[in-house]
Amino acid sequence: MKSLAELAEIREKNRSKVILPDGSKNLRVVVGMATCGIAAGATPVLNTLVEGVKAEGIADKVAVLQTGCVGVCQYEPVVEVYEAGKDRVTYVRMTAEKAERVLKEHLVGGKVVEEYLITTAQKA
Amino acid sequence: MAKTSLYDTTFCKTQQRLALRNCGVIDPENIDEYIAMDGYRALGKVLTEMTPDQVIDTILASGLRGRGGAGFPTGMKWKFASGNRGNVQKYVCCNADEGDPGAFMDRSVLEGDPHAVVEAMAIAGYAIGADQGYIYVRAEYPIAVKRLEIAIDQAKKYGLLGKDIFGTGFNFDLSIRLGAGAFVCGEETALMTSIEGKRGEPRPRPPFPAVKGLFEKPTILNNVETYANIPQIILNGAEWFSSIGTEKSKGTKVFALGGKITNTGLVEVPMGTSLRHIIEDIGGGIPNGKKFKAAQTGGPSGGCIPAEHLDTPIDYDNLLAIGSMMGSGGLIVMDEDNCMVDIARFFLDFTVDESCGKCTPCRVGTKRLLEILDKIISGNGEMEDLDKLEELANYIKSASLCGLGQTAPNPVLSTLRYFRDEYIAHIVDKKCPAGVCKKLIRYEIDPEKCIGCGMCAKKCPASTIQKTDYTAPGHKLPSMKIEQANCVKCGACMDTCKFGAISKH
Ligand SMILES: Cc1cc2nc3c(=O)[nH]c(=O)nc-3n(C[C@H](O)[C@H](O)[C@H](O)COP(=O)(O)O)c2cc1C
Ligand code: SF4
Ligand code: SF4
Ligand code: SF4
């Protein structure tokens, strides 16, 4: 990298992928893939979402990524969905089957799966 | 609308994420995501707008102190190593050895935001005049190592490491060194000897690493979490950082919250937050309606904090004043079922194993401490043993060569200070009040409650539960009895009995 301008350019190009701008129709889905998440079974969850998004033909609108640890050990595997203008959605204790349902109902259908929310898990 | 997010839970509401800001947010294997979150802008800023001395002054003014244990002011450390820039080879090192049992703060930073450490080390290199850095990571952290390797590779491809960074003529390179996981290798001089390819043993200081460190060259060593704070201090300014925290401890601290607590996990709070807030509000309190007994901080070098200090604002100095220390951030909660003598023994057993053996006070002294604790735990303790423990502990603290020995007695001293009555119960009453120390507890069957079903005898691994010839009024079968001599105190019988006939004393 030879200049700050180059860095600024990369920042601008990628900023809207990480922080979805107002009005964006895209979704950003992150799966906690630190040691804790992987040990709890996050890998099949991530794979299900990555494959599922392709199979549903929504890969250009829904980015599925791995991320580090959000800090809630006993709720791993954790999946979070970001959408512009909405509260971020935290799904906990995920499995490949649960990911399948989140894919169909939330990522495709636009409806949050209340059952798997962290706020639901904490009430139980 | 229903609350949906992690951030609607009490676990997160009062946390303040600085060191962990990108963890769980960005893809750690994609440098573009780090750059999107202002990554490498701090490096760009120092190289193009600041002199090395201005960088050091900023870190000094921020009040940042080392997050790896002792809390030494980071800016001061950099200043000591900053002389004679450009004329001597110097090194920048990162301590990612994380040896405390149960700690995983640094692992989480490396796995979730490795570029923050890479960027900060380059900034440190510019500040002191070093062109080479080493990250010392334990080999048991394969995912952290892999993500660091990817991060370094990507930074090199973008020219954010290597030669002539941002066209300023500044060169900086990074390498990873794997540690075999010996606790003592986290000590700064041992870590450097280990990077040199020799056996990781501490050496006396002075000379301090700032003068003679790695390969005998001026070197700075900082902890992972310390580095993770640097880029933001550069971007947001010293004043911003020093507005968070207490008078002498600035910023936030990450804790690995574990033990008898509802929400285990990684928490980051401003310095000065009370233990009560971390345990009761963020941690959700102690499960199963049990009572809080103590919080252990600082791992094998730290101490146990009793309920009377729950409202102390946690910072470096307050923790020292109450007989513990910040350490790297392990925070283990204990309830009424934990025996404090047993806890002291657990940590001492760890240090006896991990002592490198180079100096006698530590090698022999910690073993003697452990022997005395074992004597107390098995019911053979005498009151004089308490004085002996204290005397020996203070001698080890003052005479050991490195921090391992100098802090090893802390778990014993702090439990003696706050839980002396538990030691006395073991010695005088020959009882373990928490019912943990096996030699001091017995399981007994109440003949009036026992219906003689024999379920306990089936489960007993020692086959030491026998039929008696007494049948209680109203029962059809004779009651059972535990022959104490062979009992291994496993508790299986008590868990099995559906009639509440077995109790622990
Ligand atoms: C026995 C022993 C083990 C240590 N282990 C670690 C460790 O695992 N990680 C760490 O950062 N510091 C550890 N330290 C502290 C380091 O010696 C050193 O003070 C620290 O890495 C400096 O970085 P800081 O100023 O950023 O905290 C250990 C110290 C001792 C005496
Ligand atoms: S204090 Fe212990 S660990 Fe440190 S040098 Fe001496 S024997 Fe080795
Ligand atoms: S505690 Fe274990 S060994 Fe002892 S009597 Fe009960 S089951 Fe048998
Ligand atoms: S399980 Fe309980 S009731 Fe049955 S024999 Fe054992 S002590 Fe008696």
Structure commentary:
Chain A is an alpha+beta fold. Chain A has a 4-stranded mixed beta sheet. Chain A has helices spanning 4-18, 35-40, 42-55, 96-108, 118-123, and strands spanning 27-32, 62-67, 79-83, 89-91. Chain A starts with a helix and ends with a helix. In chain A, a hairpin with a 5-residue loop joins strand 3 and strand 4. In chain B, a hairpin with a 5-residue loop joins strand 6 and strand 7 (265-270). Chain B has 21 helices and 14 strands. The two termini of chain B are 53 Å apart. Helix content of chain B is 39%, strand content 15%. Chain B folds into 4 domains: 17-242, 3-Layer(aba) Sandwich (Rossmann fold); 252-335, Ubiquitin-like (UB roll) (Roll); 340-427, NADH-ubiquinone oxidoreductase 51kDa subunit, iron-sulphur binding domain (de novo design (two linked rop proteins)); 442-504, Alpha-Beta Plaits (2-Layer Sandwich). Chain B has 505 residues and is an alpha/beta fold. In chain B, helix 4 packs across helix 7 (114-128). The longest helix of chain B is centred in the C-terminal third of the chain and has 18 residues, at 360-377. The chains are: A alpha+beta (124), B alpha/beta (505). At the A-B interface, helix 1, helix 2, strand 2 and helix 5 of A face helix 2, helix 3, helix 6 and strand 7 of B.
